[in-house]
Write a structure and sequence with these properties.
mainly alpha; Four Helix Bundle (Hemerythrin (Met), subunit A); 3 domains; 0% strand
Length: 166
């Protein structure tokens, strides 16, 4: 059953990732990205990485995508016009994708533990408590800097999307 779910979530994630690239409507692309992030969260949960799965849904599929949709709506982006592709572009893309796939296969074969599965996590780990303690003690300043950076980016989008008065 786990194998079937793995392939189902992987196909869902990859299918919607392709939809992100090929959709001409930015809102449809952003919503496809949400589904892709949710499929990735399901894969994390299947690997018993519950904290990563929850963070994937809360941070990426939730907060970041809401911010993206907010920016798209503020900028009032229109549907992208279809561009003409010539044979050189298509052949170049196929060559680059093939080279990347060949390099990926070579790296997986070269790494000695590339084909082994990871051992299961032993014991009762309190992921959320440990990450929260680290986040608000050792990494409090970077956490606050990221919050200010997101605030400045949001203010910048509002200013950029403001209509000029004549």
């Amino acid at each position: 059953m786990a194998t079937i779910l793995f392939w189902l979530f992987s196909a869902l994630m990859l299918g919607f990732a392709v939809a992100v690239v090929f959709n001409r409507n930015p809102v449809a692309s952003a919503l496809s990205l949400v589904v892709s992030f949710t499929g990735l969260a399901a894969l994390f949960v299947m690997l018993d990485a519950y904290f990563l799965g929850v963070i994937q849904v809360l941070v990426y599929a939730g907060a970041v995508m809401v911010l993206f949709l907010f920016i798209i709506m503020l900028l009032d982006l229109k549907t992208e016009q279809r561009r003409k592709l010539n044979a050189g572009v298509i052949i170049g893309g196929i060559v680059v994708a093939s080279a990347f796939f060949a390099q990926l296969c070579a790296v997986i074969e070269a790494v000695p533990f590339g084909n082994r599965t990871f051992p299961p996590i032993q014991g009762n780990l309190q992921d959320v408590q440990n990450v929260g303690r680290l986040l608000f003690t050792n990494y409090n300043l970077p956490f606050q800097v990221v919050g200010v950076l997101l605030l400045v980016a949001t203010i910048g989008v509002v200013i950029l999307s403001k209509k000029e008065l004549k």
